[in-house]
């Protein structure tokens, strides 16, 4: 178990004065990589040794987001290891112990030189000692995007600032693009209570991205797709389902 305390910066707040979903994902990622530091394999050592962690799928369930100046804690731990793959759990609480939300993510250990999965280093697995403890009931199955014409779309050019230490677009940008394509009326007076994301293929600098929004499915979940195009053609880079609930304050 690894725990860190955070306080939202002004730049982390959304229009309602609470932590934005993208800022929270950045914080969860930060907690993950400080856990790597604790195991002796921080991101800089990993990169210098030719390794990286690639996010494949993730999910988040939130009761509410921390408000400005509200200190909160992120607990994270490695719950399962299967050769190339590792599952990571998250629990988000206020300083007084109020449960704000929880999440799960599935990562792949990756050779940056060979551009393919490799077995997780034994030293890392032993340090984290996964025992199967889960943050909550969540399935991280495949997520797709319907073939029908999207309700709305927005286009972006991948900037250098979008690229992370693995040499491709950081995963948080996919959510930012997806939310940008969502019509304002679909999220008015609502907050992002649940998300399931599936990262299908990396996006690199120089690509063009189109974020598509297809509206709710039969369960009421909104559907999102991030499509990229480069010299090899176009492809679905990521897909997500989101659930938006009325704001309580």
What would your notes on this structure say?
The protein is an alpha+beta fold. The protein folds into 2 domains: 1-140, Hotdog Thioesterase (Thiol Ester Dehydrase, Chain A), CATH 3.10.129; 142-249, Thiol Ester Dehydrase, Chain A, CATH 3.10.129.10. 18% of the residues lie in helices and 41% in strands. It has 5 helices and 11 strands; from the N terminus they run βααβββββαβααββββ. Strands 1, 2, 3, 4, 5, 6, 7, 8, 9, 10 and 11 form an 11-stranded antiparallel beta sheet that branches. Strand 4 and strand 5 (99-111) form a beta hairpin. Helix 1 (21-38) runs antiparallel to helix 4 (172-180). The radius of gyration is 18 Å and the shape is globular. The two termini are 32 Å apart. The model has no long low-confidence stretch (mean pLDDT 92).
Write the layout of secondary structure elements.
Elements: E1 2-6, H1 21-38, H2 43-48, E2 51-62, E3 72-82, E4 85-94, E5 99-111, E6 116-117, H3 122-128, E7 152-157, H4 172-180, H5 184-187, E8 190-199, E9 208-216, E10 222-230, E11 233-246
Antiparallel strand pairs: 1-3, 2-5, 2-8, 3-4, 4-5, 5-6, 7-9, 8-11, 9-10, 10-11
In short:
Helix content is 18%, strand content 41%. The chain has five helices and eleven strands. It has helices spanning 21-38, 43-48, 122-128, 172-180, 184-187, and strands at 2-6, 51-62, 72-82, 85-94, 99-111, 116-117, 152-157, 190-199, 208-216, 222-230, 233-246.
């Amino acid at each position: 178990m690894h725990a860190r305390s955070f306080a939202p910066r002004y730049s982390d707040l959304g229009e309602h004065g609470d932590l934005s979903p993208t800022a929270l994902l950045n914080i969860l990622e930060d907690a993950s990589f400080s856990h790597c530091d604790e195991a002796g394999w921080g991101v800089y050592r990993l990169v210098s040794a030719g390794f990286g962690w690639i996010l494949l799928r993730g999910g988040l369930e939130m009761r509410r987001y921390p408000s400005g100046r509200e200190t909160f804690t992120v607990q994270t731990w490695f719950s399962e290891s299967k050769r190339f793959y590792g599952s990571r759990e998250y629990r988000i609480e206020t300083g007084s112990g109020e449960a704000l939300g929880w999440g799960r993510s599935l990562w792949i250990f990756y050779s940056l030189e060979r551009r393919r999965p490799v077995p997780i280093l034994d030293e890392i697995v032993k340090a984290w000692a996964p025992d199967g403890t889960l943050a909550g009931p969540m399935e991280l199955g495949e997520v797709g995007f319907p073939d029908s014409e999207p309700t709305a779309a927005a286009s972006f050019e991948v900037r250098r600032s979008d690229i992370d230490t693995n040499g491709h677009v950081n995963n948080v940008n996919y959510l930012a693009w997806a939310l940008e394509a969502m019509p304002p009326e679909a999220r008015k007076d609502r907050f992002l209570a649940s998300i399931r994301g599936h990262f299908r293929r990396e996006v690199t600098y120089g690509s063009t991205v189109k974020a598509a929004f297809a509206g709710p499915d039969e369960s009421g979940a909104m559907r999102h797709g991030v499509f990229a195009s480069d010299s090899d053609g176009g492809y679905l880079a990521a897909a997500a389902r989101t659930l938006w609930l009325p704001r309580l304050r």
